[in-house]
Design goal:
92 residues; alpha+beta; Aminopeptidase
């Protein structure tokens, strides 16, 4: 991880946490469209996306959308454990 990866100035990173799609709309590309609309035209340099750290469909989908793994986080010593993924917003 680059040394400046965790450097923040209050305007560098947009955080996305636990965005979910209800069952009837799963598999309809609604999540992909919502994700793109949410991140398009953001002034921040990057977005952090928190997702279940286990190998899940959601995590693979974020990777497909251009996010890369960065770190693992837990709010406590108990589950859930999250993968913190970073997506470059300059490319959106």
């Amino acid at each position: 991880m680059p040394a400046d990866c965790t450097t923040e100035d209050g305007r560098r990173t947009f955080a996305v946490f636990e965005v979910m799609v209800r069952e009837p709309w799963r598999g309809t590309e609604g999540a992909a469209r919502s994700h793109e609309l949410l991140l398009r035209d953001r002034p921040e340099q990057r977005a952090t996306l928190l997702v279940d750290a286990s190998p899940t469909t959601v995590r693979r989908r974020y990777e497909h959308w251009g996010a890369g793994p960065s770190a693992i986080s837990s709010r406590s010593r108990m589950p859930p454990v999250y993968a913190i993924m970073i997506r470059n917003l300059q490319a959106v």
